[in-house]
Amino acid sequence: MPDIAVAPPAHDLSMLGLFLQADPVVKAVMLLLVLASLACWAIMVEKTVSLARLRGQIRHFARAVREGGGQGLPSDAGEGLAAGTLGVALREWREGRDEDESRAEFRDRIERAMRAPIAAAARRLEPGLPILATTGSVAPFVGLFGTVWGIMNSFQGIAASNDTSLAVVAPGIAEALFATAIGLVAAIPAVLAYNRFTVGIARLRQEGNAAAAELAAGLARRALPPVSGRVGRVAAAE
Q: Please, which residues have CB within 8 angstroms of residue 54's CB and are 6 or more apart in sequence?
């Protein structure tokens, strides 16, 4: 009876098939990378919304300052960050200047007071950015670890079966390389989003600080008469 050649079992090379047929260690690497990618996308959506909201507040504040004509006391600061920043500035302005305080020092004091709420608003956007940075830098190496582990298992299978045909080698190598692909899919959007958000936050902070400097200069030109000590400041505030 003639020998009948038996075809090797077919391998599923779809993404789901590569995951299900992978080594347990490679599966764990893939799951970790997928979870990291999902976390990064959730952070990206949340930061996009928050950055747009902060951009609107900063630009509203800058527009209110410009409408004041550089003379201080904007007529309509709205609410939120713009109103809070203006409130801080007016509180410092109403306290007046000390007798030994120059107009430049008075202006710097008002500007520093306004920078605090702007910096606080920018800092509220920073949580989550380290996760994007970590995923962008580490995910490719985690995927590479899964690839190396999978290729090692493939070589062990080749040695055990004494068969070096492409049909035997290809499925194991494909499963291993799939881990690297997932690592890159997780890392590339994370790096792009991290750079975009950090630059966007820095630019909004600069824009807010520029508007605060303009408002402080206007208020300093309209400075109340110098007052002396705590009693004088309270009287000026009243």
A: 81, 121, 122, 125, 201, 204
213 within a domain of the structure (yes/no): yes
Q: In terms of DSSP H, where are the helices of the chain?
A: 15-20, 24-67, 81-95, 103-123, 129-161, 166-221, 229-237
Is there a domain that residue 183 lies in? yes
What are residue 227's phi and psi, to 5 degrees? -120, 160
Q: How far apart are CA 121 and CA 115, in angstroms?
A: 10
Report how far residue 86's alpha carbon sits from residue 54's, in angstroms, rounded to the nearest whole number. Answer: 16
CA angle 92, 93, 99 (to 5 degrees): 95
Using a 10 angstrom Cβ sphere, with 0-12 exposed, 13-18 middle and 19 or more buried, the burial of residue 20 is exposed
The total number of structural domains that make up the chain: 1
**3-class state of residue 183 by DSSP:** helix
| Residue in the block written with tokens 């400097």 | 213
| CB 170, CB 188: distance < 8 Å | no
Distance CA 140, CA 107 (A): 50
- For residue range 66-108, what is the model confidence (pLDDT) as tens digits? 776 555 555 555 567 777 888 788 887 777 777 777 778 888 8
**186-231 pLDDT, tens digit each:** 999 999 999 999 999 999 999 888 888 888 888 777 655 554 444 3
pLDDT at position 72: 52
**Domain residues for 61?**
23-237
The amino acid at residue 78 is: G
Q: 92 and 98 in contact (C-beta within 8 Å)?
A: no
